[in-house]
Automatic annotation (TrEMBL):
<dbReference type="Pfam" id="PF13370">
    <property type="entry name" value="Fer4_13"/>
</dbReference>
<protein>
    <submittedName>
        <fullName>Ferredoxin</fullName>
    </submittedName>
</protein>
<keyword id="KW-0411">Iron-sulfur</keyword>
<keyword id="KW-0249">Electron transport</keyword>
<keyword id="KW-0479">Metal-binding</keyword>
<dbReference type="InterPro" id="IPR051269">
    <property type="entry name" value="Fe-S_cluster_ET"/>
</dbReference>
<keyword id="KW-0408">Iron</keyword>
<keyword id="KW-0003">3Fe-4S</keyword>
<keyword id="KW-0813">Transport</keyword>
Amino acid sequence: MRIAVDLNRCQGYAQCVFLAPGVFELHGDEALMYTPAPPADQRERVLRAAAACPVQAIVTGEPVGSEGPYVR
Ligand code: SF4
């Protein structure tokens, strides 16, 4: 799967970090780092994190071909 986070929208609430700590990481107060192509075993965690984000900043999908665009 692939993920993208709209960092303009992200408010650093860290729900995603809590739910999928292997994929999302906060550096400092509000700088979110994430793995854009997380391993398959993280899928459920990532979906939960995306659903929990209070500002819907996390978009998940599968790549079409070797690169985007994504299909939700
Ligand atoms: S849950 Fe949403 S707002 Fe919070 S850090 Fe993650 S992406 Fe940002």
